[in-house]
From TrEMBL:
<feature type="domain" description="Glycosyltransferase 2-like">
    <location>
        <begin position="6"/>
        <end position="123"/>
    </location>
</feature>
<protein>
    <submittedName>
        <fullName>Glycosyltransferase family 2 protein</fullName>
    </submittedName>
</protein>
<dbReference type="InterPro" id="IPR001173">
    <property type="entry name" value="Glyco_trans_2-like"/>
</dbReference>
<dbReference type="InterPro" id="IPR029044">
    <property type="entry name" value="Nucleotide-diphossugar_trans"/>
</dbReference>
<dbReference type="Pfam" id="PF00535">
    <property type="entry name" value="Glycos_transf_2"/>
</dbReference>
<dbReference type="InterPro" id="IPR050256">
    <property type="entry name" value="Glycosyltransferase_2"/>
</dbReference>
Length: 232
């Protein structure tokens, strides 16, 4: 029986790169070395640049938020609309490198993992000083005992049972960290693998610092919530 894969892409003001990301996902589905049916879902998180209109040309389902509600809320809404037995989350700014997403599916389809997480190549320009990644990695290790090499990665695939069991509605940019902590504590198997995805890079710009500052706060809040109410 051919599995149904739900690919969920949260997007906020990503009209410039979203079309190439969605095109790459569609091409990867058509040319994959193994067969699967695909449901492509885009969650337009209150964009003001036509992101939702771009998505309509490619996606099976487009959800539109009237205001920006954060990545965690967009991921949750996408998951609620998903029908697949396996769910894939991808960021909207991967562009043509999104064609590599089937690599995340293989360990799950082979029964070797319940959740796979992509480890991306190093950035080509200097970014932050590792504060967010350091907090995320230490938090995951302290709360679950798992030593993650990519705790912040938004590129991941999982059996839908993982999301059903985790239950928690994660906050903003802390969604991936919270999901990892809960998945480990619930006994799910995680495999991290290198996948040559590429993001848009903000570098050490004012915009980049604002993004990382918000990310730091939301990761910290999510870790506190996971400590206060552990998954069981």
């Amino acid at each position: 029986m051919v599995p149904l894969i739900s690919v969920i892409i949260p997007a906020w003001n990503e009209s410039r790169l979203l079309a190439s990301t969605l095109e790459a996902v569609s091409k990867a589905h058509a040319s994959a070395e193994f067969s699967f049916d695909m449901q492509l879902i885009v969650v337009d998180d209150g964009s003001r640049d036509g992101t939702g209109d771009v998505a309509c040309a490619w996606a099976d389902v487009v959800l539109r938020f009237p205001v920006n509600s954060g990545k965690g809320a967009a991921m949750f809404a996408g998951w609620q609309a998903a029908s697949g037995e396996i769910v894939v989350f991808l960021d909207a700014d991967l562009g043509s490198t999104a064609e590599k997403f089937p690599l995340l599916l293989e360990p799950v389809l082979r029964g070797e993992a319940d959740l796979t997480v992509a480890k991306l190549p190093p950035a080509s320009i200097p970014g932050g000083f590792g504060l967010v990644r350091g907090l995320a990695g230490r938090g995951v290790r302290l709360l679950s005992g798992y030593d993650s090499g990519a705790p912040l990665s938004g590129q991941r695939a999982m059996r839908s049972e993982v999301l059903r069991r985790c239950e928690r509605k994660y906050q903003g940019f802390g969604a991936e960290v919270g999901m990892m902590v809960d998945a480990v504590r619930l006994g799910f198997r995680i495999v991290e693998l290198e996948v040559p995805f590429r993001h848009r890079e903000t570098g050490r710009t004012w915009q980049g610092w604002l993004h990382r500052g918000k990310q730091l706060c939301e990761v910290g809040l999510t870790l506190w919530q996971c400590w206060r109410k552990p998954a069981c």
